[in-house]
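dumping this here before i forget
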Amino acid sequence: MGNRIAFLPPQKRRFNWAGYLLGFALGGFFDGILLHQILQWHHLLSGITRAPFDQAEVQILADGVFQAGMCVIAALGMRKLLQARYVLIDRAFDRVLAADVLIGFGVWHVADGILSNWLLGLHHVRMDAADFAWWDVLWFLLFGVLVVTAGIALRIRREPPSVDDRKKPDRPRSTPA
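structure:
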């Protein structure tokens, strides 16, 4: 039986998507709340310096639209989770859900790093840093690659066999004295 939850049948894929979408939204919320609001290291469009994007009101509006988008993605994830709630009867799926949320969270940071930081230049993790590329790579590795890797590792980790799955112990062998 070993790794019985690594690959789900097609009817249970919505369960996976629930975790991925919820994790993706949580990654966006984490980024928006921590970096945009608390630390104020950047806004969504901080890398665009021409008018009207250089105005604080426009930057804050873009952050709000971004957070609203993350709410929509989280709602879609919750809908998928409710549709697949019967899967949660099996305790093994707690781990799958946690793994899928980690994968979604990390994918958010990978996508944000590649698209927003490097390809489109919308912002960098620390706009005020002398070497913003160092911060971009650090954030990408810690919250993107490392978290996705942890999610995948959690997803494929084998569970110890349940009591019903274990073989009955063999009769003790007699050893010559």
